[in-house]
Amino acid sequence: MAEPMISDFKKIGIGLTGFGMGFTFLGVLLLFDKSLLAMGNVMFLSGVGLIIGAQRAVRFFFTRKRYKGSAFFFGGMTLVLVGWPIIGICLEAWGFVNLFGDFFPVALTFMQNMPVIGNILAMPAVQQVVDRLMGLNTKDAPV
């Protein structure tokens, strides 16, 4: 059975997006280091552009229903570059949730089927948070 081919641009884009998220995480972990946060932002955006293409990325960020999320996301990036990394990351996080919030249930469903991560997500305390993020009604679920 033939595996679906992923282009080299998409492979590089996935790597850049992952490294961008990693650099952003390290920047937050290292007391909001401005240069790590800026590198993470650039890598994340270029990775998204390579994964879905430049035109589709522009359409994704600048459609009418995503203006608010994009404004917060790019405004936060600007604040990080200007020198206010704490406020900038908070705005970026809010914009990220507004932009990519529709993808969380899909990503969580995928992660639940992974070997180690699935076991962690199946733990009772974590399962309640996962169910809320996925929009499942936790009141009717057996305990």
What do these coordinates show?
The chain has 2 domains: 94 residues, no CATH class; 33 residues, no CATH class. It is built from 8 helices and no strands. Helix 1 runs antiparallel to helix 2. The model has no long low-confidence stretch (mean pLDDT 87). This is Vesicle transport protein GOT1. InterPro entries: Got1, Vesicle_transpt_Got1/SFT2.
Give keywords:
2 domains
Beta percentage is under 5%
Integer count of domains: 2
Order of helices and strands: HHHHHHHH
Poorly predicted ranges: none
How is this fold's topology laid out?
Elements: H1 8-29, H2 34-52, H3 54-61, H4 67-82, H5 85-100, H6 104-112, H7 115-121, H8 124-134
Helix pairs in contact: 1-2, 2-3, 4-5
InterPro entries: Got1 (IPR045176), Vesicle_transpt_Got1/SFT2 (IPR007305)
Organism: Porphyridium purpureum
Transmembrane segments: 12-32, 38-58, 70-97, 103-126
